[in-house]
Task: inverse folding
């Protein structure tokens, strides 16, 4: 990190970019850059497309998918995947996984596929809201279905994962001061969804799932207000929920997953405190409105 002076050119302000950064990113006086700002942070990125080549020595689906996810969330726009021994069946599986990552094939050869990422224009806060509403939908299904559908739960859980990947990608491509908080939020909500999948497989009492659904609804309502007192009230309410859950949990494993869902909701609520404080010039904490 360096400190640089700002100077004025007519009615605008300017600052010199570091020469090593320009050379590394092939930026010169004819280049275009993307300028992103939020709160007190300004970020500058080269405007040109970023590409990466991934070469894998054997067709292992889990390995290849993890590498594609990594390329997605670290902001690459084009991925050339080369896999030795890639047959038609393996190619079909990778194509299917890539579609779920918003990657479209633009070129193919015997042992390679070139994917182009199709960016979705949704802001981070809306993606977080979708994750929370999807978690609530999962709760509804577990609470109302005669028996939770494992395939449906896994599919919806994958949707939550994709939202998290989109948030990570947005934060890599357009970094701002609050990005780290949104990534943390996404991870906590994703982990709550993972534990709900495990909990559903245990066929818990509907009363327990109903209590958890109430916790998620309260989280959705109070965390989005931007009211610091409401978030503190939410954390207090979630901690008290543990006693209620213990009344309905029939075994230690059920209680473990229910408890972890509450833990991750509390973790996420604490991130909202950071977000609210980070946007404030003055912090005044008053009792929450009932």
Result:
């Amino acid at each position: 990190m360096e400190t640089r002076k700002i100077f004025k050119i007519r009615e605008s302000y300017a600052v010199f970019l570091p020469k090593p950064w320009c050379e590394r990113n092939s930026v010169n006086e004819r280049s275009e850059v993307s300028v992103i700002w939020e709160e007190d942070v300004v970020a500058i990125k080269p405007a040109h497309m970023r590409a990466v080549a991934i070469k894998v020595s054997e067709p292992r689906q889990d390995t290849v998918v993890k590498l594609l996810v990594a390329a997605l969330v670290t902001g690459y726009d084009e991925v050339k995947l080369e896999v030795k021994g890639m047959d038609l069946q393996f190619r079909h599986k990778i194509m299917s996984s890539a579609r779920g990552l918003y990657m479209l094939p633009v070129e193919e050869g015997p042992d390679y596929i070139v994917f182009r990422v199709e960016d979705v224009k949704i802001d981070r806060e809306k993606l977080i809201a979708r994750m929370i509403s999807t978690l609530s939908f999962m709760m509804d299904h577990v609470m109302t279905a005669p028996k939770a559908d494992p395939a449906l739960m896994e599919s919806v859980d994958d949707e939550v994962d994709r939202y998290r990947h989109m948030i990570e990608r947005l934060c890599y491509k357009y970094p701002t001061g609050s990005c780290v908080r949104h990534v943390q939020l996404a991870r906590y909500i994703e982990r709550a969804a993972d534990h709900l999948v495990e909990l559903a497989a245990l066929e818990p009492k509907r009363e327990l799932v109903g209590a958890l659904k109430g916790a998620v609804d309260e989280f959705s309502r109070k965390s989005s207000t931007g009211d610091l007192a409401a978030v503190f009230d939410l954390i207090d309410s979630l901690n008290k929920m543990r006693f209620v859950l213990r009344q309905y949990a029939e075994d230690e494993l059920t209680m473990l997953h229910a408890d972890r869902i509450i833990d991750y909701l509390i973790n996420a609520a604490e991130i909202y405190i950071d977000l609210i404080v980070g946007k404030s010039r003055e912090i005044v904490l008053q009792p929450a409105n009932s």
Q: What stands out?
A: The two ends are 46 Å apart (CA to CA). The longest strand covers residues 103-109. The domain at 124-278 is CATH 1.20.58.220 (Methane Monooxygenase Hydroxylase; Chain G, domain 1). The mean pLDDT is 90.
